[in-house]
Request: fold
Amino acid sequence: MINEKYLQYATKILNGTIPSNTYIKQACERFMGDIADDSLYYLDTDECDRCVSFCESLTLFKDQYANQQVKLMEWQKFFIYNVFGIKNKETHKRKYKQAFLFIPRKNSKTTLAVMCLLYQLITSGENSEIIFVANSTKQAKIAFSMVDEFVKRLDPKSKYFKHYRDSIIFLPLNSKLFVLSSDTSQMDGYGAHYLCDEAESYRDDKIVATLRNGQASLENPLGLIISTAGYEKMYLYDLFKTSTEILQGLKKQDSLFCLLYCLEDGMDYSDENNFIVANPSYGVTVSKEFLKEEVENSINNSSAKISTLTKNFNVFCDVSETWINSQDIANSTMNIDLQEYKDKVNTIYVGVDLASVCDLTAVSIMFVIDGIYYFKSYYYLPTETIKTSVNTELYKKWYREKKLIGSHGKTTDYDMVLNDIMKLNKDFYIEAIYYDKWNSSQFIKNCESQGLKCVPISQSIGAFNKPTKEMQRLILNDKVRIDNNPITRFCFSNVVIKSDWNGNVKPDKATNEDKIDGVISMIQCLSGYLISNEPYYDGEILTL
Reply:
């Protein structure tokens, strides 16, 4: 029987004693599942105690806590129990090779991370290295200076540690901790544990991928990624979305631990009851007065609101205004194998959003069973664009995962798209292909030559208003099932709503790099269904 002290934080989160978001609850449920009797894993309580005792033997050195012993908070112990304590029953190695701590500033994330890696330095048993990396050497040295100060107090006579300007050596194991900049060429060849600090500034996953690939020779590798939200959708946003999908069970990556402290869509940041949801150190390292003043300032000074939401509540600055929030999309997501529906579905509706020669093309299929709307989408992109786009890292990843279909050359192969539609035509009755007239004349002629009915959908805001609102209504009422494809979720996350003076709305995107093609093709499916099943005014003609 596991001692209650190891379950205390997870229990308080799950029974609502500590207010929380969905992601922290899911992390606690994951922890409880890992330590269940029938799990592949177990909780090494001795390891947990050693790491906690080591951290609490360290002496703090700045602010009001200077010269005091570390006293870990419950959430920090929970982090340690997961990262160091969950082990495989067969190998007795740690389950987690990577940990992502997503948390607002002032919550002592860097302090916790450096204590954990200092523990790793002196207990790993390997002649190993630990690298501290940030987008600048200056930022990486902030974490390094913390380790240096801890070590000076832990070993004042330098009996066990040797200090250099950018490195520390633990003499008994000859293990080394040092600083590198974000130049990936400097990282090749290192088989090291690592800390990636303030990852919101990373443009892509090259830094983390290089470090992770270098760990192949390590017996029990560990990598920590810590950050507060940023102002742009770069690497961190992708990691955050992937982490939410892992916690939701939409993706499987057992080696990644995710602890995501942030406000969710719909949570009022001015409500003091929500302060602790994003700030687990609220009332300790995050001053109650400070946070209250920050919120009041943002309410009185609108220009400060984005900064407060981003840095104090961990909200990506444009995510809070998305059309449909990510949790609702995740809740609507499931694996859809069309072969399983061959005998259940009479009619399917196909929406096509064709690319401009070399961009993303989306083809969506929709069918309805017992009032539930099912969507499955396919995505096409020229292989040359996969290599050269500003979204190249995402495209390469999706191509490797076979979520993105590559057509050879520099332009989209529309014949490949048509061939895939014709394969569907063998198993299902296609009511029609619903398409945008722009840039589609030859493709539509080819479809019609194969006997397919094709119906143009006006791209005007008046035509898109009803199906856009209906899509939102259906999703919010749990009437939609979306195939488990990260590109579709990426498209939903990029939608901003364009509206006119009459209250009509239509999905739009903020920049050219923000792709929404899958959403457009899905709405065209729904628009076709509405046209086919009820009188529908499309903004230009009345269809009866």
Observations:
- DSSP finds 19 helices and 22 strands in the chain.
- The two ends are 68 Å apart (CA to CA).
- Residues 137-154 form the longest helix (18 residues).
- The first strand starts at residue 41 and ends at 43.
